[in-house]
Specification:
It is a single chain. The protein contains 6 helices and 5 strands, in the order E-H-H-E-E-E-H-E-H-H-H. Strand 3 and strand 4 form a beta hairpin. Helix content is about 45%, strand content about 10%. Strands 1-2-5 form a 3-stranded mixed beta sheet. A two-stranded antiparallel ribbon has the order 3-4. It is of the alpha+beta class. It has one domain.
């Protein structure tokens, strides 16, 4: 049985848009193992995720991690609040990845990320917006 993944609210959309870039080699390898090796793999849509407001599975090797928090905690809290409001998710909620994709498709429209992801350095890369467009087109 696969253990439950713990996810900060903003990591749902980060996982949708992930294309192999990250804050460090260790961070990128960890995120690739989770996103590409688990969530996007065959059967990955059944992966159970518990929403948290602390460092999670993605944060584990992040060079900015400080215990259960982040060196940029205020920015992370803003992102989590915006993403939680957009997705209707709060700490303690549990959702399988396939349901999370359906939530994203139903609640986040192309173009919404400019507001939801304000302050995220990866937004300017366009990866997440492209992934969201593919999700809405039925390609993901």
């Amino acid at each position: 049985m696969t253990p439950v993944l713990r996810y900060r609210r903003h990591h749902f959309l980060c996982s949708l848009g992930f294309e192999g870039k990250g804050y460090s080699d260790g961070f990128t390898a960890n995120m690739a193992a989770i996103v590409m090796g688990q969530l996007r793999a065959a059967g990955g849509c059944a992966t159970l995720i518990e929403v948290t407001d602390q460092a999670d599975a993605i944060c584990a090797p992040c060079p900015r991690r400080q215990g259960t928090g982040c060196a940029e905690q205020a920015r992370i809290d803003r992102l989590d609040t915006a993403h939680g409001a957009a997705l209707g998710l709060a700490p303690g909620d549990q959702v399988i990845w396939g349901e999370a994709l359906a939530l994203i498709r139903a609640r986040v429209m192309p173009g919404d990320l400019a507001q939801i992801c304000a302050g995220c350095r990866w937004h300017a890369e366009g990866m997440c917006e492209a992934a969201l467009a593919r999700l809405h087109a039925g390609a993901d």
